[in-house]
Amino acid sequence: MKWVAAPVALGAAILLAGCTPEQQRGFLPAGSEEATNLTSGITGLWVTSWIVLLAVGVITWALIIWAAVAYRRRKGQTGLPVQLRYNMPIETFFTIVPVILVLGFFAFTAQEQTKIEARYENPENVVEVIGKRWAWDFNYVNEDVFFQGVQVQTDDDGEATEESMPVLYLPVDKTTEIRLETRDVIHSFWVVEFLYKKDMIPGQTNYMSFTPTKTGEFMGKCAELCGEYHSMMLFKVKVVEQDEYDAYVASLRDAGNEGQVSLEYNPNQAELSIDNDNAKSQNQ
User: Fold this and answer.
1) Can you tell me the distance from the alpha carbon of 17 to that of 110, in angstroms, rounded to the nearest whole number?
2) Burial of 193 (0-12, 13-18, 19+ CB in 10 A)
3) Residue 235: helix, strand or coil by DSSP?
4) Among 143, 160, 279, 269, residue whose Cα is nearest residue 221
């Protein structure tokens, strides 16, 4: 075995050393490196999971091939080999190891999820994100200004136009709380490079907390099928320096966008009202 193990270990080391940075990060989206203070933990969980699963796969395939070769029918053999009903040590091993793996994956996933959804006691920046079919509204709570988005427009080729995309501004290196609301159906807030998404449930407020650690522009989208134009429910996130963020807030205030967008314009409420009126008419 040592003559086999040594070349295998050497080959694995050479293969891993030749991996590109993208491959070493498990092909996660470009630009997600240190995008927030939590992306490194998510990346570590993702890459470690793949390494463990690949190791399990290699061992499993090796055992299958070994059994097929070692116990193959030889020339001149007839009939069936000796049949065994069970092997307690092997069956115990095949039961305990997967349970340990599942519990381990669950524990580390729950740990990372808890970090993201734990609320800061005094966040430096608070934004309320409201999903609606099929656009986004952003309430900048601390500054008491808002941005009200419209559905993304498309060009002649059916591609989203950049200038019509809602933009969420965030200051870099500031503890940030995102409050997630929906005005109609279930949506899901997903900033791709932040490596996490969270559902927006009618009648319920969900939270995400993080600190953007890198300036730049990141892609966002709804990750929950929400109707005909779900694919166009896009937005961008711009993480900027504090002075640029302050200038943007000032531009919203100058445009008359003071105050906060409410949740009262809910088409579900309108539909309910219409149904009630119809029911009353029928009863009369």
Assistant:
1) 31
2) buried
3) strand
4) 160
CA distance 144 to 261: 10
Q: What is the pLDDT of residues 143-199, one digit of tens each?
A: 999 999 999 988 888 888 888 999 999 999 999 999 999 999 999 999 999 999 999
User: Which residue type sits at 263?
Assistant: L
Contact (CB, 8 A) for 130 and 183:
yes
189: β partners: 198, 222
* pTM for this entry: 0.77
- CATH of the domain spanning 125-258: 2.60.40.420
Q: How far is CA 126 from the centre of its chain?
A: 20
Nearest to 134 by CA among 235, 63, 9, 42: 235
Q: Give the number of C-alpha atoms closer than 13 A to the C-alpha of residue 84, restricted to the C-beta side.
A: 5
Q: How many Å apart are CA 179 and CA 127, to the nearest integer?
A: 6
Q: Cβ of 216: how many Cβ atoms within 10 Å?
A: 13
